[in-house]
Amino acid sequence: MLENSTYEITCIEGKSLQTAVVIGGSIAIGNLKTGILLIKIKTDLDDRVQPFVKE
Length: 55
What we know:
Low-confidence stretches: none
Radius of gyration: 11 Å
Structural class: mainly beta
Order of helices and strands: EEEE
Shape: globular
Mean pLDDT: 92
Helix content: under 10%
Number of helices: 0
Strand order of the largest sheet: 2-1-3-4
Number of domains: 1
Distance between the termini: 26 Å
């Protein structure tokens, strides 16, 4: 369902850290710093924003 959707990861202050297309149903976050981040996933049906913690 998320295949070929776009996403943007931002820090809690709103600075964009990573933007790409979902490939293979997964998103690589190994290069991001630890902390509270937000991910916005854009599909054909809607946009969703979800906070997550990178440890």
